[in-house]
Amino acid sequence: MKFGLPGIVCLSFFIYAQKAFAQPRSLDSMMHQAAYAHSASVYQNQQGDQSPLNNGVRYEKYPHPFRLGSAYFPSDQFARGSVVYNGIFYDSVLLKYDDLQQFLILLKDGYELQMINERVSSFDIGENEFLRLMADSTHSGIPATGFYELLYDGPSRVLKQTIKYIREETFATEGIPRYMVTDEVYYIRRGQVYIRVKTVGSLPNIFSDHKKELKHFIEKNNLQDDNMGNVLIQVADYYDKLVK
């Protein structure tokens, strides 16, 4: 049995509807989830080699090891996850994310496929969700088109951008040891603009309409710069409840 274009469109709408409107797991929602998973599995099996997931290129691995750090998230090993690719949601696939080069890698039939970035809308690996955002007027403040980890998805959305680069140190007796250096950059959404947050102390000024309350919240909970991701989640959630 083959799916024509109408079948693909209908199935895509069904998958998106299930993902977008997921609720706490009542018996009814669990039945819907089971039906969704079955439909997605049937669709992927029917597609076979014609599946859009095969629209990638053979991934080229790094030719040298790294003495410290990794080029991948969550590790050098593949993990179970999901991806929206070509507008279709695929669940329970083996993925790893090369966050040095910003490539999503799929393990399929023993081959490592580099997925086409422009066709990846979002993906999940474990409990971590990533979005591909365009640096355009709809995402004002985003510095570059790419993948951003979604830490909090309320009105004051919180994003993390991971930037990696390789540092090489030459020693006569050891060749060229290579180290992975990682920087993490955080953004919080204020209205329709994403603002980079460097310090916890800057947050009351970003949300100046509740500056006093935020300063008190930060001081009361002893929020510090060394745990920025968790701090931003707490502050964003607190602010969104204040203005609800």
Describe this structure in words.
With 244 residues, this protein is an alpha+beta fold. It has a domain at 1-50. It is 27% helix and 34% strand. It has five helices and twelve strands. The chain has helices at 5-20, 27-47, 203-206, 211-220, 228-242, and strands at 56-58, 72-73, 79-85, 88-98, 103-108, 111-115, 120-125, 128-133, 146-152, 158-168, 178-190, 193-197. The protein is globular and about 55 Å long.
Q: What general form does the structure show?
A: globular
Structural class by helix and strand composition = alpha+beta
Largest sheet: 12 strands, antiparallel
- End-to-end CA span: 50 Å
Tally of individual helices: 5
Radius of gyration: 21 Å
Task: Please indicate the percent range of residues in DSSP E strands (runs of 2 or more).
Answer: 25-35%
Mean pLDDT: 82
Give me the strand/helix succession.
Answer: HHEEEEEEEEEEEEHHH
Q: How many runs of DSSP E, i.e. beta strands?
A: 12
